[in-house]
Write a structure and sequence with these properties.
The structure is a single chain. Strand 5, helix 6 and strand 6 form a beta-alpha-beta unit. Helices cover 48% and strands 13% of the residues. It has seven helices and six strands. It has two domains: 73 residues, no CATH class; 146 residues. The longest helix has 24 residues. By secondary structure, the chain is an alpha/beta fold. The radius of gyration is 18 Å and the shape is globular. The chain has a four-stranded parallel β-sheet with strand order 4-1-5-6, sandwiched between helices.
Length: 221
Amino acid sequence: MFWISLLLFGCLVMIMLLAGPFLFGRLYMPKLSLIIIRGLNRTMGFLLIKVGLKLDYSLVKAGNKYFRKAFAATPYQNRLLFLPLCLRPLDCPAHLDTDLGYVCQEICPDCELGQLRKEALELGYKAVYVVPSSRLIHKEGIVPSDQFMLAKIKEHAPSAVLGVVCLWYFRHRLLAKYTIGHSGYSIDSRRPKFVVQGVLLKNMNCRNAEVNWSRVREYMS
């Protein structure tokens, strides 16, 4: 009887943790919630693909809400902004630097990405990176996008990070590999935690992606 009660209690906890972001837009016990959602995506991803997609979006929304006050309280000079290369126009003249990512040559009049980068730097952001990816760019020295970002986080030691990512990257790179606690995320035990905010792209088109620019600016400022 004891084990049955314990099992039922465990199932109830799991259901509540899943229902938090999915039904109530809230994140309870973030570390345990991510473990449960990661396991669900891994074991039943193909069967629950539509539910899984909704859960991923709900998880990002709930996570943003969970860390919003702490992110807003962080001075701009202690924040980093990461933007994906797939938001660049097809005729983008920016050159690729293996250490800095894509480097804007100038503020092109029709480039929303470059304009957003300029606005973030004018606000005082510590750094803004247009992140390259070895999955899309087969060139010596280009590392996976998550490794690029982790290297920059180690370099700058920010208190807050804003990232714009696609659903594929969120699920297969961030959700699958990393975890987060109630105080934020830490890349190792020797470094302070930082809070995060995230914006998912509208599609997974690696050459012509779209995002809600107003939402990015809202989170950024």
